[in-house]
Specification:
Layout: H1 4-7, H2 11-22, E1 32-36, H3 42-50, E2 55-60, H4 63-70, E3 77-80, E4 92-98, H5 107-117, E5 123-129, H6 135-144, H7 147-153, H8 165-174, E6 178-191, H9 197-203, H10 208-213, H11 216-233, E7 236-237, E8 240-253
Length: 262
């Protein structure tokens, strides 16, 4: 279960990649825009401001997130749905998938299918975290591999659920798209607190399936052990924790020549 309040604890830091991604979508008057994995909806609402004449839709698998999004009273059609089953309508000119595809096994095939089903000249923009080799995720996997946890948590944690930018670019170029792919490492300066801030960050995302799989006592023990490792990997300095976070961005335009620049 997604907790919108926990997810939004670092809303400013989580929103910046979305804005950096959408800034590269160079279209003025799209007919319809779909935000897949829209979460609590505040970022989706900014799309309605940018493209006021477009039909804007937000889709998320979490009823809790959609309930929060619907409460915004934005000019957006928010619905619960599974991105794996989503298919674009003929007038969809922009698809955004911000920090969602890392949860979807086989998403490269989904991207290729969407590229083929979208109208020519449509835009497909997505961003995924690329920090699965970072100390935070290495610590998570190391604790999960302990004998006490491995049987329960082993199947839940994947070491490399996303591709490199060049792999995504090659796949979408082969599908006939013009592609802009890049990566950025943000260094988030998180205020030190009683709960380690990287632990608090991870509770909104990577730790969600772990917490769901454990009972309250087991979760408390797992959390405490992980917190020790995170404090060693990300020590506080001058009252702040420096948290580097790599992200991968791809913007593709369908039906375009490979040599065409976005």
């Amino acid at each position: 279960m997604w907790d919108p309040t926990t997810y939004l604890r670092y809303a400013d830091e989580r929103s910046r990649p979305f804005h950096d991604l959408v800034a590269r979508v160079a279209v003025d008057r799209p007919r319809a825009v779909v935000d897949l994995g829209c979460g609590p909806g505040a970022l989706t609402a900014t799309l309605a401001t940018r493209w006021p004449d477009a039909r804007i839709a937000g889709i998320d698998s979490s009823p809790e997130m959609i309930d929060r999004a619907a409460a915004l009273d934005a000019p957006v059609d928010f619905t619960v749905g599974d991105v794996r089953r989503w298919r674009p309508a003929p007038d969809v000119d922009v698809v955004v998938a911000n920090a969602v595809l890392q949860w979807v096994p086989g998403h490269r095939e989904l991207l290729t299918r969407w590229a083929g089903e979208l109208p020519a000249g449509a835009w497909l923009a997505f961003q995924v975290p690329g920090n699965f080799a970072a100390p935070s995720h290495r610590a998570l996997r190391e604790v999960a591999r302990r004998e006490r946890w491995s049987a329960t948590l082993g199947p839940l944690l994947r070491e490399a659920p996303v591709d490199d930018p060049s792999d995504y670019a090659a796949s979408l170029a082969a599908a006939g798209c013009a592609v802009d792919a890049w990566e950025t490492t943000y260094v988030h300066l998180l205020p030190a607190a009683a709960d380690h801030p990287v632990l608090a960050w991870m509770e909104g995302t990577a730790l969600r399936p772990v917490r769901a799989a454990l009972d309250a006592a087991a979760w408390a023990d797992f959390r405490a052990e992980l917190a020790v490792r995170l404090a060693e990997a990300y020590p506080a300095r001058q009252g702040q924790v420096y948290f580097p976070f790599r992200r991968i961005f791809v913007v593709a335009r369908t039906g375009a020549r490979a040599e065409e620049k976005l």
